Structure formats: C-alpha cells, structure tokens
Amino acid sequence: MCQSELIDEISVVSLIGMPGGGKSTVGRQLARRLGRSFADADHIIEQRVSCSIATFFEREGEQRFRDVESEVLRDLVSRPGLVLATGGGAVLREENRRLLGERTVCVYLRSNPEELFRRVRHDRRRPLLQVQDPLGRLREMIAERDPLYRQTAHYVVETGRPSVTTLVNMILMQLELAGVVDPFAVSSPVGRSATTE
Q: pTM of the entire structure?
C-alpha cells in the first residue's frame, strides 16, 4: 500500500515535536480550519491522573508517566475526525511511534533549540527542562528525538519564525497535496483562497 492510499484511510491528524514547538497552538487553529475536534494529549493525561504532569513526574517517575501517555494515545487515535497534539516525548516509545505512524497522518513541527528556549525558558510545567542548563538540555533532547520524530512523521514542517496561521497553511497545503483534505472544503493556499471567483 502506498503512502497516499494509507493516508486516505486515516482520519486523525497528529502533531509531534519538541516541548514548546507549538503543537497545541497550531493544533487548535488547524482543527478549526478543518472543522474537526482538537485534543491535547498532555491535558487529557492531567485530567486522567488528577494532577499536573510535573507533579505526576515527581511522584510516580517518568516510566509510569510514559505508561499513562501510551494509554491515552491508544484511546485518542481511535477517535475519527480528530486533530491531536502529542506530548514532546511521545515518540520515545516504539509502540507510540508505530501507533502515530500507522493510525494517523503525522506532522512533525521541527524547531531549533534557541527558538524553543526562547519559548519555554520561564515555563515551570516542563519537568525535563528544570535543570541548570535548559538550553543544553534542549540540544541533547533534540539530538535524541529528532531521528525518532522524522521516523514517525509523514511530513516535516520547519517552525522558524512564521506566524501560527502560516504554519497552519503550510500543514494544510501538505494535507491537500496528499489528498487528505479536500482543497474546496477549507480555506487555504491550495484551494479556493488561491483562486479568483
């Protein structure tokens, strides 16, 4: 089965990438543009464990957190018509990579460490970045995770400095060219918005 045939059968669009890469912000706007529901996996995990991820990490450890994360992802990818923002470390488990690669149209929002540091340097909710050198930690995490993100994703979108709207348009263009989205059903660069009526 070729990739375009596989993608035609998939109804969940997932976003993967580093913490602070814009998955939730972009995902919400992408869902609005597509007329779909939006789910933030980290938010659902917090609802399930009845505390913040940082608290759960401290109390139960990363291994238990990853167990809950995998359970939540299995549930979410079975919901048709969803745009899903995953946690930054979701790709660390092979089962999650396989699930996202096979059951969703997966988009990697790729950011450089300096850009991420600018966004998350004051955010105390990210337990893996509560270290003396968070920029150095981000570089290490990107070195470890970038190959896993690329292995999982159908598409890679460089975040750089574009606006959220521009990033959403870039994703929509990829989805439309792949036949996942009807270009006449959503306003984007590859549909009616690119033509005159």
A: 0.85
Distance separating alpha carbons of residues 125 and 175, to the nearest angstrom: 32
Report the C-alpha gap between 120 and 112 in whole angstroms: 13
Q: Which two tokens stand for residue 70?
A: 């995998």
Q: Go through the domains of the chain in sequence order and give each one's CATH number.
A: 3-179 (3.40.50.300)
pLDDT single digits (tens) 111-170: 988 888 877 766 666 655 666 777 888 899 899 999 999 999 999 999 877 789 999 999
Looking at residue 114, what is its pLDDT? Answer: 86
CA 150 vs. chain centroid, Å, equals: 12
By C-alpha distance, which of 55, 59, 33 is closest to 46?
A: 55
Residues in the chain: 197
What is the rounded CA–CA span in Å between residue 47 and residue 41? 10
Residue 4 pLDDT > 60, yes or no?
Answer: no
CA gap 97, 66 in Å, rounded: 13
